[in-house]
Amino acid sequence: MSRYDLEYRSFSLSLAEPLETASGTIESRDGFLVRVSRADGAVGYGEATPLPGWTESLADCEAALERARDALDSGDEDGALEAVDEAVAARYGVSLALADLAASSESIPLYRYYAPDSLVARVPVNATVGDGSVEETVSAARDAVERGFRCCKLKVGRRSVEADVERMRRVREVVGPSVELRADANGAWDYEEALAAIEAFDEDDVALVEQPLPAGALEGHAELRGRGVGIALDEGLLEHGVDAICEARAADAVVLKPMALGGLDVAQQVATWVDQFGVTPLVTTTIDGVVARTGAVHLAASLPDPPACGLATGDLLAEDLGRDPVLFENGAAVVPQAKGLGVEGVWAE
């Protein structure tokens, strides 16, 4: 007999405004809310929200969830995760639900399920500024700083390098020298464009550029390092893996997206791995619903001394799966201390 039952429901969450990135425009997030229940009434929640270019398709995600459900129905608990194969979004949904249930049963917050000796109240976060006009970019960055954010990440790469340099320069003038600035190009530049942008960004004390070159350009990223602006690999982490990145000395940081990596357990292993090589792990979401976002907050809380992470993305959605248990104050996420994820009211009967 199976100890667990797995159910899932589809959803579609519209963004408050379309998010323009170098990889394309994101208008909604479509996925599946996952619930794993036990005969004693204990439940755990997960979320599988695929993102084109990063994970399996929506159809493949649903098929993987069906396989996981069949495995649990047959009493094969270990096989439920094996059944999702390479469907990373589905694996995140199932593994998160199982971890939420386990942590709730132990009456501990989820981050302590992964880091039992930790007691973390807050983790720093960055504000994400879309790839808008100079005026829109400056306005969004000013608003973020007024709300307490001490780190802003600007989406770049859809415009000319000169235009992005001007956007960054104007933001620096407005926010002052004490706010950390980052850029995210989503692999939009060639080497000469990236080099020109990085040299200009260095003058404005930009801390980090995420994925300046396409994912395959490992040697190019290695050559861009050491020019005053840190290099972070995002898509490149999925393309090459940790060993190749560290061997090539291609990154100062790697971006950990639990949805794209297949779960908090996998992301934490990667974080521990890269830390051994002096590479900084940066936790971000893929603009997910509240269940997956809160999971990412717990992941960041399980890591020692995390830098500002991309977790404050809930306001990009026009609607959500339920109430957000994470408060954001003075540029930090207040980590839920309730048992498990701390998310309630997402599965209305």
How would you explain this protein's 3D organization?
- The longest helix has 18 residues, at 88-105.
- The model has no long low-confidence stretch (mean pLDDT 94).
- This protein has helices at 58-73, 77-82, 88-105, 110-114, 134-146, 161-175, 191-203, 218-224, 235-240, 242-248, 258-261, 264-275, 290-301, and strands at 4-21, 24-38, 43-48, 122-124, 127-129, 151-155, 180-184, 206-210, 230-233, 253-256, 280-283, 327-329, 332-334.
- It is of the alpha/beta class and 349 residues long.
- It has 2 domains: 4-107, Enolase-like, domain 1; 122-334, TIM Barrel (Alpha-Beta Barrel).
- α1 packs across α3 (88-105) and α5 (134-146) runs parallel beside α6 (161-175).
- The two termini are 25 Å apart.
- Count of strand segments: 13
**C-alpha geometry:** globular
Uncertain spans, ≥5 residues at pLDDT below 50? none
Sheet of most strands: 7 strands, parallel
Number of helices: 13
Pfam family, one: MenC_N
Keywords: Lyase, Magnesium, Menaquinone biosynthesis, Metal-binding
Protein name: o-succinylbenzoate synthase
GO molecular function: magnesium ion binding; O-succinylbenzoate synthase activity
Topology (SSEs and partners):
Blueprint: E1 4-21, E2 24-38, E3 43-48, H1 58-73, H2 77-82, H3 88-105, H4 110-114, E4 122-124, E5 127-129, H5 134-146, E6 151-155, H6 161-175, E7 180-184, H7 191-203, E8 206-210, H8 218-224, E9 230-233, H9 235-240, H10 242-248, E10 253-256, H11 258-261, H12 264-275, E11 280-283, H13 290-301, E12 327-329, E13 332-334
Parallel strand pairs: 5-6, 6-7, 7-8, 8-9, 9-10, 10-11
Antiparallel strand pairs: 1-2, 2-3, 4-13, 12-13
